[in-house]
Amino acid sequence: MIHLINVTKKFNRQTVAVNNATIHIEPGEFVSIVGQSGCGKTTIIRLLISEIKPDHGQIIIGGWDITKIKSYQIPLLRRQIGVVFQDFKLLPKKTVFENVAFALQVSGTTRGRINKIVPQVLKIVDLEDKLDRYPQELSGGERQRVAIARALVHRPKVLLADEPTGNLDAINSKEIINLLLKINDFGTTVLLVSHDKSIVNALKKRVITMEDGAIVQDQKIGKYVI
Fold it and tell me: Is the per-residue pLDDT at 23 higher than 90?
């Protein structure tokens, strides 16, 4: 599903964000990427959604070599990859329904299809009863669930979660991780970037550890060892 082959990304001569990284992730896997701040975890996410391009190496997602992807192809790529961020990135003046619908509107989805899909994904994240609420009326955990619903509207093959529990307390963090596991059970490949040792260790899933831009450990059933 995801293949990074000898990928290197530099931001200047002194800063090597990703250093000759090779990662192979199979369809349906749940994988955590861990490491200290600045080790290259978020750069991997940015490379996978073609926000930035590698200086060297090859990136293949679902059989599609995106290493030299054209700008007009990027929206198509991002409809196949759902992304969830630490800071939610919700539109404050739009309701829960409108925030989720917006991801469909920008891709030209019809109103009828939007009205069908949005309630379905809100049901998955247990927010079908709050579709008329605004972000400021929701808890942090609920806002993150809205963000996850928005990431699911195109039925992506891959879900990238970049520190999705970073702004949440322990209870809400557990709920979000359980939701990611539920989505993974549907067959979606999940890539979790996290600095939360307790969450990563409790998952008992594959763990890739990065240090100074390099992959230093890859455990099938791993722990946060840094």
Answer: yes
The three-class DSSP label of residue 58 is strand
- Beta strands (DSSP E) in the chain are 2-10, 16-25, 30-34, 56-61, 64-65, 81-85, 158-162, 189-193, 206-211, 214-219
**Is the distance from CB of 201 to CB of 223 less than 8 angstroms?**
yes
Chain-centroid distance of CA 68 in Å reads 21
What does the DSSP assignment read for 64-109? EE-TT--GGGHHHHHHSEEEEETT----TTS-HHHHHHHHHHTTT-
User: Mind listing the pLDDT tens digit for each residue in 102-113?
Assistant: 999 988 899 999
Is 60 within 8 Å of 5 (Cβ atoms)? yes
Whole-prediction pTM: 0.90
Would you list the domain boundaries of the chain?
Answer: 1-80+157-226, 91-155
Question: What is the spatial distance between Cα 161 and Cα 159, in angstroms, rounded to a whole number?
Answer: 6
- For residue 193, the SS3 value is strand
- Nearest residue to 53 via CA among 15, 80, 17: 17
Name the CATH superfamily, with its identifier, for domain 1-80+157-226.
Answer: P-loop containing nucleotide triphosphate hydrolases (3.40.50.300)
In tens, the pLDDT along 119-169 reads 999 999 999 999 999 999 999 999 999 999 999 999 999 999 999 998 899
